[in-house]
Design a protein that fits this description.
Elements: E1 2-10, H1 33-61, E2 68-72, H2 74-83, H3 85-95, E3 100-102, H4 117-135, E4 141-142, H5 151-159, E5 164-168, H6 171-174, E6 182-185, E7 192-196, H7 198-205, H8 220-228, E8 236-242, H9 256-270, E9 273-275, H10 278-284, E10 290-291, H11 307-310, H12 313-323, H13 326-331, H14 335-344, H15 347-351, H16 373-406
Helix pairs in contact: 1-2, 1-3, 1-9, 2-3, 8-9, 12-16
């Protein structure tokens, strides 16, 4: 049996408002509610609502044989709750079909695993509760922020009880191996690995509307033809992409929804492939062997490393300063501080500071509210300066309270 695993990432950050030096000590509301609401509504109308309708129709049309999976960040779910509950309801409707799997991830779409296992585990637990609350599922498969994986991260995730994890099928890791098999972690053999076929995924996500691409125009029959050309023994093609591919990155006028609607028919009637969820793949397929990734690997850019988020002094300074506050934040009993801490960790804030504006420049500009990486850094550090003051003040209050109780 040959299988396609369709996985979609859904995420919207709580973007920061313009926060100046003179706001420090005077304004503790950091997030741009108007912009976040406006962007969420725009993407919902372009992507989430119409794409969910298409998926629901396809599931019903094919009697449950068409299957997909999602991970939806806690930040995105909270914005659905705040601004567009009808989007959340449309995802719940997909969940009720039994053909859609929801994966675990970090609640704040953070890079916490690179600094703090404690914070990482707390966010994953909080995200799992959110998935259970809204979708009635307890995830058994994990997808880390930005698809970041390493042997160490795999060990942590396996230790938390997850059966499988998604990762990038990077050439510099696989060497001669194909991503089109199920693998296991080299250091935690019970953890199955589903590796992204980035070429076929990116044909849809990035190249679909590129008139200069040799594969243009991409049609469902052409894509299935490529699938049929794969070696006969390759068992699993993992198509991982941002859900915003449909209608937002690739506008409706490109024909992306027509492609999505036509793909299952072409797969079922003109290939030996079927659709499978990550949990089903981990449970039913046989591993082709172990894969080791000693250093973190991500989806991003040509390097497939961490440099999109932690590749320059600006990013390293901001990241280090934020996590230097962790112990004090955890000692606080102020819920607003804890919530701000959570969403100040979102990876997008560091992505906006990326200075890699060459071959990968365009993707770094998507919904980026800053003119330059330096603007992003200064804005973020102004917020962190105020946040630090609040944390210190709360710690002082806690100390005084403890001293008073001691007497």
């Amino acid at each position: 049996m040959k299988n396609i695993c369709f996985y979609f990432q859904v995420h919207q950050p709580f973007r920061l408002k313009r926060y100046h030096f003179f706001n420090i000590g005077k304004d503790s509301n950091y997030f741009d509610d108007d912009s976040n609401s406006e962007i969420l509504r725009k993407v919902a109308h372009n992507c989430y609502l119409p794409a969910n309708r298409v998926l629901l129709d396809l599931i019903h049309k094919h009697g449950g044989k068409f299957k997909v999976s999602f991970s939806i960040s806690g930040a995105a779910i909270e914005q659905f709750e705040l601004y567009m509950p009808e989007v959340l309801e449309s995802f719940k409707e997909l969940a009720r079909t039994g053909c859609v799997e929801f994966l675990a991830e970090t609640y704040g779409h953070s890079l916490a695993i690179l600094k703090s296992e404690e914070e990482f585990k707390a966010q994953v637990a909080a995200h799992t509760q959110k998935v259970q609350q809204h979708f009635g599922q307890t995830p058994t498969v994990f997808r880390n922020t930005e698809l970041i994986y390493s042997d160490h991260i795999g060990n942590v995730v396996a230790g938390m009880g997850y059966k499988a994890m998604l990762a990038e099928g990077a050439d510099n890791v696989l060497d001669w191996k194909s991503p089109n098999y199920l693998y296991t972690s080299a250091t935690s053999p019970d953890l199955k690995l589903l590796l992204k076929n980035f070429r076929l995924s990116d044909d849809i996500a990035f190249r679909f509307s590129n008139h200069e691409w040799s594969g243009f125009p991409l049609t469902a029959d052409k894509f299935v033809g490529w699938l049929n050309d794969l070696p006969a023994d390759e068992q699993l093609v993992n198509l991982f992409m941002d859900y915003e591919t449909f209608g937002e990155h690739q506008w409706v006028t490109t024909g992306i929804f027509d492609f999505l609607k036509a793909l299952p028919d072409m797969v079922f009637y003109h290939s030996a492939f079927e659709f499978i969820t990550p949990a089903e793949a981990a449970k039913t397929l046989t591993s082709a062997g172990a894969v080791s990734m000693p250093n973190p690997v991500s989806w991003a850019d040509e390097e497939r490393d961490l440099s999109a988020w932690l590749g320059n002094d600006l990013q390293d300074d901001a990241f280090g300063t934020l996590y230097s506050l962790e112990a004090k934040v955890k000692a606080c009993d102020d819920e607003k501080i804890k919530r701000d801490w959570l969403f100040l960790q979102t990876s997008d804030h560091f992505y906006y500071m990326c200075t890699k504006f060459f071959a990968d420049g365009d993707v770094h500009k998507y919904f980026n509210p800053y003119y330059t990486p330096y603007d992003a850094f200064m804005n973020y550090m102004n917020v962190i300066a105020d946040f630090t003051l609040r944390v210190e003040q709360q710690c002082d209050k806690s100390k005084l309270k403890d001293q008073a109780l001691a007497f």
